[in-house]
Amino acid sequence: MGPGWIAERFTESVQAHTSQLIAAIGSRSLDRSEAFAGRHGISHSFGSYEELAASDVDIIYVATPHNFHYEAALLALDAGKHVLIEKPIGINREQAAGIADRAAGAGLFAAEAMWTFFLPKFDVIRQVLDSGMLGDLTTVLAEYGEHFDRSHRIFDPALAGGPLLDLGTYPLSLITSVLGEPDRLLALGEPHESGVNAQLSAVISFAGGRQAMMNTQLHNFTPTSATIVGTEASLTIDGPFNMPGGFAIRFPDGTRLAYEEPAGAHFEGLHYEAAAVARAIAAGKLEVPQRPLAESIRTMAVADAIRNQLGIVFPGESPATVRRD
Ligand SMILES: NC(=O)c1ccc[n+]([C@@H]2O[C@H](COP(=O)([O-])OP(=O)(O)OC[C@H]3O[C@@H](n4cnc5c(N)ncnc54)[C@H](OP(=O)(O)O)[C@@H]3O)[C@@H](O)[C@H]2O)c1
What we know:
It contains 10 helices and 13 strands. It is of the alpha/beta class. It folds into 2 domains: 5-115, NAD(P)-binding Rossmann-like Domain (Rossmann fold), CATH 3.40.50.720; 117-310, 2-Layer Sandwich (Dihydrodipicolinate Reductase, domain 2). Strands 7-8-9-6-10-11-12-13 form an 8-stranded mixed beta sheet, covered by helices on one side.
């Protein structure tokens, strides 16, 4: 649903690496739907999202711009379809919780397509963290910047532009997945001439004196690195940390353990989420352990808290939707 840039990457990856069938495409335009279907050998194309939702598919992958995820997901759920929704799951906590409630009420599967957490390397990272090898976790440092052509939707305020939802959601998801619920945060941001936020940084504290620092910006590429620090060792994920690739664990005595994997991008990585979702649905589950809905909701709550401090309001939100702390 929404055959744009990421839908192309997702389709190529799923078709190449799984036996799943991309059965139909739904676009706001029949021409775009048919063109996409033609490029990828897909048998059914619809000229509206409503027709796709009413069709005979098992699950709908929502790949519209951020501020249409909520209505697209509800359209699919209300038609009795499971949903996999591109990141961020919605534009705020309220939308994320609304999707989770609607799915649970209907007994349908829902997940945020936070593909990073479905990659094999994150399975290994989770095992490292669970093993206690790093000691007590104290700090997470994570950032994400990228260069965009000026025509990209990230510069469009009407599409909830700015780096927070496109890029910042990766470091924020990592930080909250590792350290949990924050107790305090301080954010600084700078506007872009287009009217969206250009960059923001946040310092976040958690129970027990643990801290995280994040930056996200749309000016240019950064290492997109992430480091998880513990009292016994630190783990640094090769950049871009959200994509396939390696990571290393360093101990104070100079010992270094490396997880080696060729760097990859969407083609190499997006199919893992599709496979995990299919396995979960086949097993009768309504969520995936790699990205529980409660974690998607928590990430959006932290993004809301950052926006509160910076006065960033997305389309369709009243300032009251993004509550001030
Ligand atoms: N997982 C990842 O690595 C990754 C990477 C990039 C993007 N994403 C996420 O995927 C979502 C889509 O990003 P994208 O880069 O694929 O965007 P995109 O290229 O602009 O595609 C979005 C599609 O949504 C549909 N759409 C519905 N309402 C629209 C509107 N008002 N304006 C524009 N398009 C509208 C359009 O298809 P029709 O009009 O034909 O229906 C359009 O092709 C975003 O939420 C983004 O965060 C994820």
